[in-house]
Amino acid sequence: MESSSSTMDRVNFRTQILTRHLQNHHIPPTDLIHTAPCVNYSPPELSEPLANFDTKSLRKLLDGKSIDVIDHMFNLMIQSNLFCPRERGGKVFVSPDFNQSMEQQREMTMKRIDYLREQGAFDGWFSRKGDDGELWRFALAETVSVFDHSLGIKLGVHFFLWGGAIRFMGTKRHHDKWFKPTETFEVRGIETVTRYDARTEEFIISTPCESAQKYWIGGAANHATHTVVFSQLEINGVNEGVHAFIAQIRDADGNICPNVRIADCGHKIGLNGVDNGRIWFDNLRIPRENLLNSVADVSPDGQYLTAIKDPDQRFAAFLAPLTSGRVTIAASSMNTAKVGLAIAIRYSLSRRAFSIRPNEPEVLLLDYPSHQRRLLPLLAKTYALSFASNYLKMIYVKRTPASIKTVHVVSSALKATENHVGHLKSEYDVQLTFEGDNNVLMQQISKALLAEFLAAKKRNKPVRGLGLEHLNKPAPIIPSQLTSSTLRTTQFQTDIFCLRERDLLHRFVKEVSEHQALGESKEHIFTVTYQLAEDLGRAFSDRLILQTFLDVEATVPAGSLKDVLGLMRSMYTTILIEEDASFLRYGYLSTDNAAVVRKEVMKLCSELRPYALSLVSSLGIPDAFLAPIAFNWVDANSWSSV
Amino acid sequence: MESSSSTMDRVNFRTQILTRHLQNHHIPPTDLIHTAPCVNYSPPELSEPLANFDTKSLRKLLDGKSIDVIDHMFNLMIQSNLFCPRERGGKVFVSPDFNQSMEQQREMTMKRIDYLREQGAFDGWFSRKGDDGELWRFALAETVSVFDHSLGIKLGVHFFLWGGAIRFMGTKRHHDKWFKPTETFEVRGIETVTRYDARTEEFIISTPCESAQKYWIGGAANHATHTVVFSQLEINGVNEGVHAFIAQIRDADGNICPNVRIADCGHKIGLNGVDNGRIWFDNLRIPRENLLNSVADVSPDGQYLTAIKDPDQRFAAFLAPLTSGRVTIAASSMNTAKVGLAIAIRYSLSRRAFSIRPNEPEVLLLDYPSHQRRLLPLLAKTYALSFASNYLKMIYVKRTPASIKTVHVVSSALKATENHVGHLKSEYDVQLTFEGDNNVLMQQISKALLAEFLAAKKRNKPVRGLGLEHLNKPAPIIPSQLTSSTLRTTQFQTDIFCLRERDLLHRFVKEVSEHQALGESKEHIFTVTYQLAEDLGRAFSDRLILQTFLDVEATVPAGSLKDVLGLMRSMYTTILIEEDASFLRYGYLSTDNAAVVRKEVMKLCSELRPYALSLVSSLGIPDAFLAPIAFNWVDANSWSSV
After folding, report:
1. pTM of the model
2. Could you give the CA distance from residue B172 to residue B162 in angstroms, rounded to a whole number?
3. Is the interface score ipTM higher than 0.85?
């Protein structure tokens, strides 16, 4: 081995490469303006092995019946100059101009919505019924987010929050009045919370103090004309709990209404296409009919009418339908991951850097094992999480009063988990906290699991639902000496994930009951048991995702596609076992086995390497939504394309 | 325990809180415009326990002799309207206007530099000698970055890259000519790399091909007038390796010079105050004297003159002085962490959310154990890494030819490590990759350690330098049953960090030699051993940081300040042992002991909790550089301050 400084070695080696690079193009000095392309771009399609599976079938596993609406939305965006198409390196790409000011980004976002509306993209938003209608709405909302997170959020606030409140909390009189103008954006909606007073026959909405102002309301600063206000409803001095009301905040010309004050939240670190604002109400009067009366109403003579006696239960009934927010966050975080990985992997298949030995050709980035390790596990996670988010959408659209808790727990699990792939980039960063801070969501999952477990125990019945049936069986046994082939079996993968969830749940139960024995309140107990709660929440999420992956695999006939899916599933489970310290911490993995797992990660990387391009193509993101660096970046960077 | 849905419980509980909150302010409905402050801001200074140590002394441990220049720079910035002072919640804050376009941000950055120059801030940049001069330059550059990373980088490119190249690679003729106009910004410098041809008596700089264009050159797009070009030097057909030349690229009026083409890199995800550009040279002629001739020169009649025969060694000699980049990145990442933590901790000491039990007062965020866990370990890391970056600065300013390798390895370790605190925020994100990708830096450290170890073995001598002397002693023994008090001893903390470094080094040596036995090239071997190399690089960095922390503690007399430092050091080591799976993976920690470590993290959080405000105050960031949310956010958000 070398005894001299490796730093110097590295510098020297680099110099040799540079020198050789230049000597290969020994152009006579008088002819130096000649711009010979030193580095040629070669499309990876020419050099990569052909996929031995059908990429269309793989994409179908990801996008299912929504493929047509997804591709239709992509095409609408590519075809309009509003989406800033620009030609680079012989291809056309679309992306927002982030150099625009906040004001310009907001205006462009609104114009893009107007264009999509004119193209009929939103026709039938409220009339499409059943599972197909729900899936169509999700697909539409997720696809616009591929272009720009602002566009997705602005549409989401309008259709899912405002539109969802009208749909689920209102009744026929509201549907008849508001669905059409909402679909056509004649009214532009937002959602907020405020306080109500009903001393007269009208509703009067007020903001009693500074800390009751409505903050970060999407759409409030510029474009919204109407809002759904959540407020305490007081009638004859009795507080009936939180209800929802429609209030107009701007007239058709965009002027702020009397008795309403609005301030702009201003520039943000990202999402500047969304005009967040703050609202104060000063005794704003609204007609009695503007109460969204799905669970309670007020008669003309001021009687409060409801079938649900308990005000807290009424509030809970209101909020339940609004979990769709977490569903869309989970799903669109996958699109962010797909775009990022498609760009990074395509580039790493066309960019070479340094030779392993002097005078050998330079090496493709993706042929470096350390680079494989950084990208290929993320690709496996993206597939696994996409399958899981499809499952979440399915249980959401088929929800029943009995399953709403499952939807809540699963959406919390996936919303928190999936954002780990989305990273902390500025446009996307808010996903970590809105619709529930991810750390808190993990604790919520654990509380729900604890409640399920204890309830079953109390009833002396097996645990049911949330995929927890494995708790009724004996604990799985992990082989004392793992091998590469064991690591790739469905049996082992399921066993170790179930073992972890089971053991952490038992530990959590024990820890909570120890605190209870000391007479502590349950609220206090949950604040001090966050360590186990977060581990358990993650264990639940990972096991759930593995299960949905296996469900997808089961639909694929034996053959090369099933094989590559198996490889991806093994990568997904193996990388989690390597990365999450809980497997070692709680003893599910011995240190010997941990070493086997680490080796397997490298091995899986090298085996997935040949499929990288096909797996990325199967993601179904049109080239135009990627970036020049994913294609001919030599041309795209040349002087002639400046 | 509860058997009903915890979701519903949570919703109900929240409703109760909201209801109580509103009922506490039961204002008559006719008087609803009255804006009673429901939530009062109470400065944490009034409620938090007084520090039982001297915060000035603690700050002195962080900023040492540089306190005066740091505070002077802060004051210069606070006093000028160019730094956008705005009053919020009764205090004045300065921060860039990120809603400005790229063009506006660039112009503002340049204006801020002009203002600081007019105020004499840079006077003596080149003339201040010795250790004090170097530390003064570092302090100055780091402090402007507290305001804005663009300002720091733009100054760094000018003074450290351009100015550093003139200083270290040039000789008296260049110093006499360029120091003064650089200090006064009459010339505005950048650094790049290109190719040289010397067929005539002049130097002719050319860009032979598209891929040889100079990319991402800070300052090139708008403001730079001169650049240092790195190029292969060819004389009489012989390639003499890479040399550095001064080239003018714009005239005094800002027009691009003939034979130079420049393109703008455009808008970036952050750092838009820095005007990055791309440069092509078309047979640009420059005077012979513009060669920076510290190690080699060319005579008027075209003879190449040098004392260093080997061209690669000449190149390495050129580059060695430029490691200051990593030093400043390591140090200014600490400032980013300080600002972020000061804001987050101050806010968490003034913001309450939910009661533990109904009808109890709401709880301060920092009194939630899970919130302590998220902030207080970062505070301990920030202190530890600040001490370590001061150490790095010290060995940099006292560098000798013999110690330059140590500086390189230590700066790689800290540059890569410290950015973990800085997170992936858009303005700061580039720090992860520029001046060396952090993953690659970890591998470089391991290669250097391997070389040291093998060289000592070959010479049959003890290992010396880089703090590796512990390798000559027997392996430390970790107690089989850890306790809270053991975990807090210097002995244990040092032992487990040394054990990890030692064992990983031995494993790395073994893995590399196994590959060698198979006849693989060393370049290939380093590409496949990245897993151990990255673990080892981190082990080295962590042990180094612990050592500098202990060095600082040793200077403090017994008393409350030393006690709180000890608590912070224990938090720093304990959190690393909890977070880095390598302690379990390689068996330095049993699963039983891992459980003790986890408990200790919670315990340390609660013990550090009372010092949070004092520790944050001791960071020495002026209030104006924090944010409204760190102070009276109720006032700052009120309608009257819109």
Report:
1. 0.78
2. 16
3. no
